[in-house]
Amino acid sequence: MSPIAYTATIIAVAVVLFVWNKLPVVFVAMLTALALWATGVLTLGQALGGFGDPAVIFIASLFVVSSGLEVTGVTAWAGQLLIRGAGEESRTRLLLLTMVLVSLLTALISVNGAVAALLPVVVVIAVRLRRNSSQLLMPLVFAAHAGSMLALTGTPVNVLVSEAAIDAEGRGFSFFEFALVGVPLLAGTMAIIVLFGKQLLPERNGATMPADFSQHAKTLVEQYGLASGIYQMRVRASSPFVGASSSGIDLSAYPGLQLVAVQEGETAGPIRREQLAEGDHLLVRGEAESAAVFAAEMHLAFRDEKVAGQGEETLFNRSSGLAEVVIPPRSGLIGETVFPGMVTDSGDLIVLAVQRAGAQIAAGSATKDAGGMVLQAGDTMLLQGTWKALDVHLDDPDVLVVNSPELVRRQAVPMGPGARQAVIILFAMVLLLATGLVPPAVAGLLAAGAIILSGIMSVEQSYRAVGWTTVILVGAMMPLSTAMVQTGAAKLMAEHLVNLVGDAGPIALLAGLFVLTAIMGQLISNTATALIVIPIGVAAATAMGISPRPVLMSTAVAAAGAFLTPIATPTNLMVMGPGGYAFTDYWKLGLPLLIWFFVVSVFIVPLIWRF
């Protein structure tokens, strides 16, 4: 068999296995790369070269940047804005706002970056509003494809066609000239998804969907009886507590009040100093009247008058959070004595409450003066501290954490610590991508490095943030493009098509090139497809005596219509798992969209850029 025949056979087998959907997609992709080497079509270096491709590095770095935005609560903030703007009942408004947001972001940072940034937001929205993720994630990606035609930076294909126009005519496409065709593409895409998406998309969720922690704090404080009567009071300069010992605070003159904890002013963590200072906080539990009298007499100020006494606001905020832990069998803490207000051995966490068999231990019987409570297996404790302290000190075999503080913070704390730095890093990356000062992979690596150096994420967290399934899949499938170019299979297909339709006029040429580009774009990357089709289209336009500009723009539109398979683009693959999609789900919604792209490419493009 010839190299072209081997390549065609490998493609056919890979497509069949993908459609069959019985083998992991990563396994099929690796088999494809190894088959190209085993048949002699590519060398081993070429067959595995996709893993070192700049595009793969860029995708991996975008996962880190996206996770940084999620960890700091930027995505939670964006999700709250989406829900607030769309309402909880309106599917149409939610879809429209989501698609507008992703398309605008795509125009600035490319399809991969926009989808990677908004994917966790949309998944959380699906969980929070009890909607199937499959109804939201594919519209997110397909709107991003349409949005890639709004600006030059939307996709590498736009840059390729602009450079080809410069080579052919000495004048490329301006930054926003793509929007002339991008706006109708996006408008039609949104209309099709809103009108027909519900019927054409499956009703299912991914195999693993995150829990909804939007009301986590309220749930915990209610369960542990802290929903009201918790007050955080700031020590004023005139307070008699300034300079006093933190262990000598006496509330016996205020019946019904109990000192829960003393917090250091700047960090909101347990105080480590011997003496109190202005700005420190007392966490007090009791009746509102007694708390008001205590605050007035001791010159204390409620930290926030609007939420005074609301446990979830006082205990759960940007600086500090809550964590519920269970004492497992054989824990080293069994037999230890604890009481509300106790500071743990680390000095960073406060025990707020203890429960046994789901029942609250009476505050009076579990105090330090009453001897506290001796822990048994199965007891639960509610701990409070800074988010950093919760992350660091709960990785302990003596306790089982019910819900990861990191996951809770990502969803429930909008614009938390580090959010400003994360947004600055994102805009810096967008600026680098928009100006082209450095290659996209370099911009992504610089942004990911900044996320780590700024302390937003650790190196270990960044490793976990990368979607390795997507990275491996993209890297393993890239050599297929190399094989099609190197063996001449792609060029042979293109030349035959141009010879077939070239004499039928320029409209037929656009139609033929669209079909070729669209078909190839479902199997290999749209960038590789464009690299193959662009020179053939320019040559055909020259031979026919027409301007290459409509041919090039039509090719860009066709390359963006990668809707029919999950392997068409990395972003299609990104949503496959979270959306619970099968291989055959893509073409049902993708085919109507591809028809609209065909109409725009063949009939609208020539009206804007004349032959």
UniProtKB/TrEMBL annotation:
GO CC annotations, alphabetized: plasma membrane
- Give the matching Pfam families: CitMHS
Per the record, the domain of life is: Bacteria
Q: Which UniProt keywords apply?
A: Membrane, Repeat, Transmembrane, Transmembrane helix, Transport
Biological process, per Gene Ontology: potassium ion transport; transmembrane transport
* Transmembrane spans: 5-20, 26-44, 56-82, 94-127, 139-161, 173-196, 423-453, 465-485, 497-517, 523-544, 589-609
Domain Citrate transporter-like: where? Answer: 15-558
Membrane topology for this entry? Answer: Multi-pass membrane protein
Q: Where in the cell is it found?
A: Membrane
Query: Where does it primarily localize?
Result: membrane
Has keyword Transmembrane? yes
The protein in question is named SLC13 family permease
Q: Which organism is it from?
A: Ensifer oleiphilus
From the broadest rank down, the organism's phylogenetic lineage runs: Bacteria, Pseudomonadati, Pseudomonadota, Alphaproteobacteria, Hyphomicrobiales
